[in-house]
Amino acid sequence: MKVLVTGVKGQLGYDVVNELNQRGHIAVGVDIEEMDITDEQAVRSTILSVRPDAVVHCAAWTAVDMAEDEDKKDKVRAINALGTGYIADACKAIGAKMAYISTDYVFDGTGETAWTPDCKAYAPLNHYGQTKLEGELAVSSTLDKYFIVRIAWVFGENGNNFIKTMLNLGKKYDTLRVVCDQVGTPTYTFDLARLLVDMIETEKYGYYHATNEGGYISWYEFACEIFRQAGYATKVVPVTTAEYGVSKAKRPFNSRLDKEKLSEAGFERLPTWQDALHRFLQKVN
């Protein structure tokens, strides 16, 4: 199978290409230099030239706070919404499958019940979430052969993330304040890449949620486990979002994602986040 992967320089795209290569598929990785997804003609000509059997669309604007800047909003929408639509149109033209990576931010983050994949109670809290939702709708309204996979709290070897930030801060400071009232589950891109390739090898299309197993936690609990496994003596102090200080973009309090649909479709769920953290630290720490 020939698969085009966007955002190959990012955390997830990098791991997806490696997973495809290991399985003997033909992986064609592109980033902005090879295919600017905001350029409709460039997207169409590249995809029609490569003629992949599937596209795994990992490229996105993910700087959540910066997305709130008025001078960035059009660019964020061009990348997350319009660009996604261009890719979906090109996939339709050649009959290719498409996997689109989305986010828990399409919901309003209220309550304590896990969001289900087919829930349509969309109410994004910020511009990033709104544009990712528009990307979802562009895919689902254009294609029949699609996988929309929502993830949360992403970390991977090839990029910046919460774990790397904690490790860097833990080397500089004895004590750190970390938010304790935002709850979710981390997603290791190495593990997610395996699932995404599992998916595109099938025709079990639809909406899915995919994070690591191991239970729901707060960022505070995640930070504590990071330092425990890394062997740091850094003290972590739990604070509420209000106590921590307002960020430009509103953050969801409830990022719990229900992953039961993966099991129902016969997909192997991801290992626990504790195990994923252990493997990640072996690589980067």
Q: Any overview of this molecule?
A:
Helix content is 41%, strand content 19%. By secondary structure, the chain is of the alpha/beta class. It has a single domain, classed as Rossmann fold. It has a six-stranded parallel sheet, with helices on both faces. Strands 6-9 form a two-stranded parallel sheet. A two-stranded parallel sheet has the order 7-13. The longest helix has 22 residues, at 73-94. The radius of gyration is 18 Å and the shape is globular. The model has no long low-confidence stretch (mean pLDDT 97).
Q: N-to-C SSE series?
A: EHEHEHEHEEHEEEHEEEHEHHEH
What is the name of the CATH topology? Answer: Rossmann fold
Q: List segments where confidence is low: pLDDT < 50 over at least 5 consecutive residues.
A: none
Give the strand order, joined by hyphens, for the main sheet: 2-1-3-4-5-10
Q: Strand fraction band? A: 15-25%
Main sheet record: 6 strands, parallel
Give the total of beta strands: 14
CATH architecture descriptor text: 3-Layer(aba) Sandwich
Overall shape? globular
* Top CATH class: Alpha Beta
Distance between the termini: 35 Å
The structural domain count equals 1
CATH homology superfamily: NAD(P)-binding Rossmann-like Domain
Rg of Cα set: 18 Å
Query: What is the tally of helical segments?
Result: 10
Give the mean pLDDT. Answer: 97
- Give the helix/strand class: alpha/beta
Question: Residue share in helices?
Answer: 40-55%
